[in-house]
Amino acid sequence: MLPEVLQYGFMQRALLAGAMVGTVAAVVGVFLVLRRLSLIADTLSHVALAGIAAALLAGIYPVAGALGAAVLGALGVERLRSRGGVFGEAALAVFLSGGFALAVVLLGLADGFTVDLFAYLFGALTAVQPLDLWVILGLGVLVLGTVAAFYKELFTITFDEEAARVQGLPVDALNLLFTGLVALVIGVTMRIVGILLTSALIVLPALTAFRLARSFRRTLAAAVAVAWLAVVGGMVAAFYLDLAAGGTIVLLAIGCFGAATLLPARLRG
Amino acid sequence: MSLSALTDRALRPPVAEVEHVCVDYGRERVLDRVSLTVRAGDVLGLIGPNGSGKTTLLRVLLGLVRPQCGHVRLFGQELRAFAGWHRVGYVPQKAVAFEARFPATALEVVLSGRCGRRGLGRRFRPEDVAAARRALATVGMQAYAAHPVGRLSAGQQQRVFIARALATEPDLLVLDEPTVGVDVEAQEQFYGLLRRLNEERGTTILLVSHDIGVVAREVTQLACLNRTLVFHGPPEEALRSGALARLYRPESWVVAHTH
Description:
The structure holds 2 protein chains of 2 kinds.
Chain A: H1 9-34, H2 38-58, H3 62-83, H4 88-109, H5 115-122, H6 130-149, H7 151-159, H8 161-166, H9 171-193, H10 198-210, H11 216-241, H12 245-262
Helix pairs in contact in A: 1-6, 1-9, 1-10, 1-11, 2-3, 2-4, 2-9, 2-10, 3-4, 3-9, 5-9, 6-9, 10-11, 10-12, 11-12
Chain B: H1 3-11, E1 14-25, E2 28-39, E3 43-47, H2 54-61, E4 69-74, E5 77-78, E6 88-91, H3 94-97, H4 106-112, H5 115-118, H6 126-138, H7 154-166, E7 172-176, H8 184-201, E8 204-209, H9 212-218, E9 221-226, E10 228-233, H10 235-241, H11 243-247
Parallel strand pairs in B: 3-8, 3-9, 6-7, 7-8
Antiparallel strand pairs in B: 1-2, 1-4, 4-5, 9-10
């Protein structure tokens, strides 16, 4: 006999999708935080919102709109970054508010804030439709496969980009590839925790893992474990206690981070 | 210096050549028609005051800065066409390169030095790990393979970075201000290691430093840079000719240590 939480099709889909989303968000998050690009996740998620708004307006699949906008935003951000302007962070802030402003205007044209939009902003257990599940699993496998294939390159440019260049690695192409991965991760993560909390699910497992693990490989594993704990725990709690799933997941992730911070040094990895 | 020693050096093949190189940062010219040849077996110290362009010259040689004019060749090949990067080991200035909280073990860091050699999208093989462990042993850090780099001392971290550069057994080792922030004992060990690499493996070494006294004692060739190349030759000659005095203002004039 299945426990109640697993008896509903929407919960099965949400948990499956959540496990995949937690995995890719945690893995990409470790690289992202170490490269000091955390703000890119937030920026791209707001750009993705403009994509959702455009898709709702045009009547096409919103996740496709989000992915398209996030990838375009990623290209723009990477262009800015590679030019190495002093005000890189301010440029990100422009992208962030610009994406959000565009979304608000488009939504105004689409006649206001629909229920559908709420699910994209804040996430919802019932939001994962069968098509969403397949999109999330497919893109998740693509992201994990790419990270696995280029693991040593991603580690090398993350640890020391300049030394990577001297080794003859195609650093610019790898940066572009990585930013593309971030865009994909945002596109799938927002379906689970909502646009506004997406960057939290990307950043928090990484930050927690840094306190637990000594090697890079174990840091990745620890981040994935933390993300699973937060996503599955948050969803189950949200189901039984009738809480907002996205918020519960992120609060749990913050709880994990707090616990890892308080952990005495001798108990850490 | 005897004539035979001079011809000896002239007969050795060039490892790194810079020819009439200029670099401008904005309106300011930081390198002005600099020509310098590093030959196989050299231990060449590149010195100069702050802002003299020595780090820039290093970056030009490594392909990190594109010069406005002039030619750069590594192992006889034009830099643009150069593909043998595994023959070059690079040890960046530690403070610039390193985030102390980065979660990686010494072995993971050293292994990353073989990334370019193994090829894009290929996994490391057991021989890569073996080479990384050998490099750690060369710098005397084999016992620390599984230690997080962030928790090692400054001198130990420096040795790990050297091991990363040695992981492909390069013919040319390039080091940028390698002894900054490292205590005297670690410095002694460091120069001992350079001597060993140079004598036993024939590794060519190019070293950028501001510490003239120590460098003059440890290198076979000295190059003094102050936007232009002021002097290039054996260190004894630099002292005799007064090149160092011209290079530095009197107040920063450091008396050379002699054996």
